[in-house]
Amino acid sequence: MPAPIRLRELIRTIRTARTQAEEREMIQKECAAIRSSFREEDNTYRCRNVAKLLYMHMLGYPAHFGQLECLKLIASQKFTDKRIGYLGAMLLLDERQDVHLLMTNCIKNDLNHSTQYVQGLALCTLGCMGSSEMCRDLAGEVEKLLKTSNSYLRKKAALCAVHVIRKVPELMEMFLPATKNLLSEKNHGVLHTSVVLLTEMCERSPDMLLHFRKLVPQLVRILKNLIMSGYSPEHDVSGISDPFLQVRILRLLRILGRSDDDSSEAMNDILAQVATNTETSKNVGNAILYETVLTIMDIKSESGLRVLAINILGRFLLNNDKNIRYVALTSLLKTVQTDHNAVQRHRSTIVDCLKDLDVSIKRRAMELSFALVNGNNIRGMMKELLYFLDSCDPEFKADCASGVFLAAEKYAPSKRWHIDTIMRVLTTAGSYVRDDSVPNLIQLITNSVEMHAYTVQRLYKALLDDISQQPLVQVSSWCIGEYGDLLVSGQCEEEEPIQVTEDEVLDVLEGLLVSNLSTPVTRGYSLTAIMKLSTRFSSVVSIYGSSIDVELQQRAVEYNALFKKYDHMRPALLERMPIMEKTASNGPTEIVQTNGETEPSVPDTKHPPLVTQPANQVTARSHDISVFTIDGSFFVTDDVLLNQWFNI
Amino acid sequence: MIKAILIFNNHGKPRLSKFYEHYNEDTEQQIIRETFHLVSKRDENVCNFLEGGMLIGGSENRLIYRHYATLYFVFCVDSSESELGILDLIQVFVETLDKCFENVCELDLIFHVDKVHNILAEMVMGGMVLETNMNEIIIQVDAQNKMEKSETFIFQSPRQDR
Hints:
Chain A has helices at residues 7-15, 20-39, 46-59, 67-75, 79-92, 103-111, 116-129, 132-146, 151-167, 188-204, 206-212, 216-228, 243-257, 261-277, 283-298, 303-317, 322-335, 340-344, 347-352, 359-372, 378-391, 394-411, 415-429, 437-447, 452-465, 470-489, 502-514, 520-536, 550-565, 570-573, 638-646, and strands at 236-237, 240-241, 627-630, 633-636. By secondary structure, chain A is mostly helical. The longest helix of chain B has 22 residues, at 134-155. In chain B, strand 1 and strand 2 form a beta hairpin. Chain B is of the alpha+beta class. In chain B, the strands form two sheets. Chain B has a five-stranded antiparallel beta sheet, sandwiched between helices. Chain B: It is found in: Cytoplasmic vesicle membrane; Golgi apparatus.
């Protein structure tokens, strides 16, 4: 059997393949060769074959038959073999395969090997893919290595310990003694990984957190040395001494100082120092500043420091680098609840970010803008936000529209402004408005009694322009159905009343029914609106009784029946809706479903009381409309009618 | 924690894929494809962070990437990592590769993917950052390479360079 080809050869061959099929063929051929080579138990070339297998695995081809071979390589005496074997184990094996447990013994031996690099390989593999059983078995070895003086091994042992703790949290106690003098190390690698280990332990256990609080002075000292020490070529990155370590320490300080006054007190000075002294021209400086800001905001810092932090974030917003702006917006979003006033100062910069080209930045700026809206700035902010709604990408429109509605509801300075804002949203982004906002809007409009005429007029004009945006059409149809008489009589006070006849209005509504642009839901709205107008207008309307949509058909037939047989009930049935009551959740009003037998659970003085002893009860059930009689006169429970409109 | 480190070229061909969480092979390939799709759409002058695709954990995880010539270096991280810090880490990684391979280019990564894995193993372990000092990393990688070479000599086995 000729010697298996080298990895380099294989790669070269595969790169000559011109199609996926050709590549697949080459790979299959090579896999077959590798398989037979494995069967021959060839020690010399095993390493080469597994390397090729890993390459093929990266391209996406199955390589599971190489798992056992990796184990054989790990057990070999040669460093070259072990290296590939461990790499293969990390790439191909995981705790779901039973094979991985066979590694445990090998790793145990290698953890005690005489060569530090072999020990390093073992630690690395255990720390990457060790299962809980393996971790339990080998935790003792890791703990031993955590105490060694060899810094190369010590730093790997620290991260391996983190993995062990993640897999088997009960073993955390075991590593406690070893952490005693981790921080007195000079080697930055060890320091770095030790801080990671301490962070993990503090995050997992409140007891550990309490225990490690006493390390705060030591951490502060280390940080101070990093900043104050002069240029150190070993750890320098763009002029700053070991920024990675600085960031890690700041993060640990954050966790330690979080709800503790004394620790926070101890950190105040160093945080102020870092915040003011760090060079901001390069990314590394900004990374440190960013971490400092997050720490200041999280611990119990004094207010001067907090203001300093927010100002740093404000400066970040003006930075040319997009990444910096992005992280600044993210952090401001987190702090806007607690330090609202400080963030308000940067409102104009934030609003400018709405015009940024970057999608991620725009989204964050939008969320932040909504968080900053309050009673004082509502007019200005809304102008900006509506402009944003006009020009933004479709993916934002739904969220922006909802945000605008919410903000408008909370802080609207006047009813007219409110209605205008709603109109603006419906006309510019009408098709992106969420379905549940239609009932909310209807409720809102009903509640503004004095604006009914104005509202219906504006909505009618909008309908004339454009009938493609369904939520707009639905709200308009509903309003015209309710307030059509106001429209026709030209009663508008707020603006110039338009001259419109009953026929024109009905034509528009009928147009909606036949238009291809209208969805079945919209047609339902307009059909019902036409029905309602039959009482408010003097001319009688013809109903569309045949429609493919079952809902519409049923409605139309029942309305027809209503006209023909129960025409005397019509005015009462279609009386104008009373003002609906809002629930605390701002959603549609809680519906009380009743029929003639039971009293409603919520007594309501606005609505006429239900009859207790009907003399002659007629219930016409049409989408749960119940009609009751009291001694010959008729009325309808408005609650139930409400339900019907909402359940369209 | 770093969930995955991916390197792929402008056409989506993977040059290195290391996952620090368990996914099966098909999912791994799908993640690579999905990540390529998300990252290649980005304009040149937008920020280097995006939310992870659905397969790799959705909005809880971030993709932090850098585009160098024909290669994308993508780190998928969760919220415990500093985004700006990871950007610096990618820079250190690439500079280390540059030192180890002498003006590294895509071909170096293609033919020596196992070496790249070895270098990465000295920087990131179990999803956490192990060492960030470039010189330190290079010293250790060189020492291990020397060990391999000396074995070849001692054991008189055929040239093992792959």
